[in-house]
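Figure 6 in text form: structure in, sequence out.
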């Protein structure tokens, strides 16, 4: 014989069951959070030429990631620069890339394949435009490069993109008024030493090892670019990513004679695509920010990486994983 519970008893049992269900769901949620698999597998980051700041930054970031994400095998791939990096990224040959903001904007404006899939993880440090000439050169401004042999960066590089715009700002035609030599920082210093170049442009963090080493073995001088700032910005929307800047006197002590040099700077971004895993992107973004001081001791440009400015990644929106990291850091 079954005896029915009083109404108050039934309510107590129902409340107890409901409490157990809620407790069970809570435990399930906590356990599921704890068992979320950590990012793992092989990941490729495209950087740049071996003697550039991109490459050195990538090497040091790889060391930090080995500690923070031990199951991730970060592979570094060389490239000709920003535009080349973006092409490798959207083609699936890379998972992350470093590129200048102006190169990203140009890629989008041109409607290049996969441009709509690009996402940012962080604003990194700024690249400074550097015009290097032999110390005894008569070149004092970009206008003086007419009819000279000028290293303009490899095709597909951010250097060449900015160089074209600087020459235009100076009233020079890239193809007609100079003899453009389309090579990167891995070759330009040697060509200048061998008198096969009269000058070369470089866009990179300060100091760039290749320029630093050149100044130590061969007398060179940095030419100011500050007089082009206004003309550069008159070119319109495409040049809004550039800002007037000053290379401090100690950037290249042997090439600057104790003088600061006015120039143009542009931000670098850590870029991925919308297909990248959110947990992986969050983890890499965290390491980029947390490693600033350690990497900055060896790559001075990296000291400019900052949590407060890292979210300003125009012209790209943040990747979901990167946004998740920044939200987690809010007080």
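Output sequence:
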């Amino acid at each position: 014989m079954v005896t029915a519970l009083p109404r108050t008893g039934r309510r107590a049992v129902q409340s107890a069951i409901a409490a157990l269900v809620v407790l069970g769901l809570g435990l399930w949620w906590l356990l599921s959070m704890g068992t979320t698999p950590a990012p793992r597998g092989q990941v490729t980051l495209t950087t740049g030429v071996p003697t550039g700041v991109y490459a050195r930054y990538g090497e040091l970031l790889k060391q930090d990631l080995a500690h923070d994400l031990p199951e991730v095998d970060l592979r570094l791939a060389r490239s000709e620069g920003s535009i080349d990096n973006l092409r490798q990224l959207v083609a699936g040959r890379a998972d992350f890339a470093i590129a200048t903001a102006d190169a990203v904007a140009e890629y989008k404006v041109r409607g290049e394949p996969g441009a709509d899939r690009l996402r940012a993880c962080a604003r990194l440090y700024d690249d400074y435009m550097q015009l290097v000439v032999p110390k005894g050169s008569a070149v004092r401004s970009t206008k003086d490069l007419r009819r000279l042999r000028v290293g303009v960066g490899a095709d597909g590089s951010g250097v060449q993109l900015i160089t074209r715009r600087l020459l235009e700002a100076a009233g020079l035609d890239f193809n007609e008024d100079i003899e453009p030599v389309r090579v990167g920082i891995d070759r330009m210093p040697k060509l200048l030493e061998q008198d096969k170049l009269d000058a070369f442009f470089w866009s990179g963090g300060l100091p760039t090892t290749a320029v630093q080493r050149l100044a130590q073995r061969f007398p060179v001088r940095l030419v100011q670019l500050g007089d082009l700032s206004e003309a550069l910005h008159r070119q319109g929307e495409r040049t809004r990513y550039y800002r007037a800047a000053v290379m401090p006197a100690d950037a290249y002590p042997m090439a600057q004679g104790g003088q600061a040099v006015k120039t143009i700077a542009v931000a670098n971004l850590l870029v991925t695509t919308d297909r990248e895993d959110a947990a992986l992107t969050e983890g890499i973004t965290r390491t980029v920010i947390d490693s600033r001081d350690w990497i900055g001791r060896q790559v001075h440009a990296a000291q400019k990486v900052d949590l407060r400015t890292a979210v300003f990644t125009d012209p790209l929106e943040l990747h979901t994983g990167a946004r998740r990291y920044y939200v987690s850091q809010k007080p």
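Caption detail: Residues 1-5, 7-14, 16-35 have pLDDT under 50 and may be disordered.
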